[in-house]
Amino acid sequence: MESIYRQGVFMAEELQLRSGSYEDFWLVCSHLGDPKAAVLLVFPVVFYIHRQTGIAVLWVAALSEWLNLVFKWILFGERPYWWIGQSGLFSKNPPKVQQFLSTCETGPGSPSGHAMITGAVWWVIVSSLASFIHTRTGSKVLAAVPYLLYAVFLGCVGLSRIFILAHFPHQVIAGFLTGMLLGIFLKRTVPECRPLLFFSCFSLALLFGALLMHGALQKIGFDLSWSISLAKRWCSHSEWIRMDTTPFSSLNRDAGVLLGLGLAEYWKPGGWVLPWVPRTLCLALSSIALHYISSFPVPTAPAFLFYSLFFLKYSIVPQVVMVLVPGFVHLLTAKPKRE
């Protein structure tokens, strides 16, 4: 693996050297590929366009991120930003690379979570859009356009992760391939008309299943906090180390999202049928609400309090998008009944 890692560092160095002037572009691409962007940005937009696809986005995002967490615990992948220093191979001739605010993630590196979740979530969207275009136009050429854009977007996200030293190229490729396969499979498993108990049990299964696996791996001698130690040691700015990038943050986001989805379906099964203009208003109000929810400060100590509040934050998201905001807009725009 050493030669693969070394070539990955050289590729990142060359990418930073040749496209350093496009730094802002790469950082935006990395942000759009963030797993939390699938929940906070992609889900609301898709949901207000097509309800079933929006729910599928949330379902696939949660399950694919949970599986990515499991893979990372098993595969123990390095990240370039710490491997460069930890390996000791570049002490005499260090590569001319720099770190960024979003570089210093604390989980293991393989496979890339950005690549895997983006590949899965956007496969759901793109395949639905292509099917719609083919049904309306009958043209296979036009139906292929979304897949072309999908490939371009995945390429930009993947290169951005290499650019900021968050992943090696082989980790990005593994993430894309796994994510695409998960998107194809998980799209067929989206729960429809399921009771709250189903989502509650599924949420708890993800939460406690991962905790049991974590405990079992530690019991047999695996140190699953190894990546956090390396991140703290080799990140160029200690303030760039954030608790919301830890594996347990991902776990609580996924479990919270699924519980929130179940509660939203429970409060208002089927949702409200709104015309396009009220739906646009819903999107605007939801975006504002989710911005404040996402930026709401959560105390980082004790850890149990942080993860509990993190779980709560993301359990609120589906309820805001699916119930609270549409209900409020429905009240504002509904025509009064004539007696």
Question: Could you explain the architecture of this structure?
Answer:
There is one protein chain. The relative contact order is 0.14. It is built from 13 helices and no strands. The mean pLDDT is 93. It has 339 residues and is mainly alpha-helical.
Query: Which consecutive residue ranges, at least 5 long each, have pLDDT under 50?
Result: none
Q: Please give the count of helices.
A: 13
Number of strands: 0
How large is the radius of gyration?
21 Å
The helix fraction, in percent, is over 70%
Principal-axis shape equals globular
User: Topology as H/E string?
Assistant: HHHHHHHHHHHHH
Give the N-to-C terminal Cα separation. Answer: 76 Å
Strand content: under 5%
Structural class category: mainly alpha
Average pLDDT, rounded to a whole number, is 93
For the biggest sheet, the summary is: none
What is the subunit organization of this protein?
single chain
Topology:
Blueprint: H1 2-19, H2 23-32, H3 35-49, H4 51-75, H5 80-87, H6 113-137, H7 140-163, H8 169-186, H9 196-219, H10 226-234, H11 247-267, H12 276-295, H13 303-333
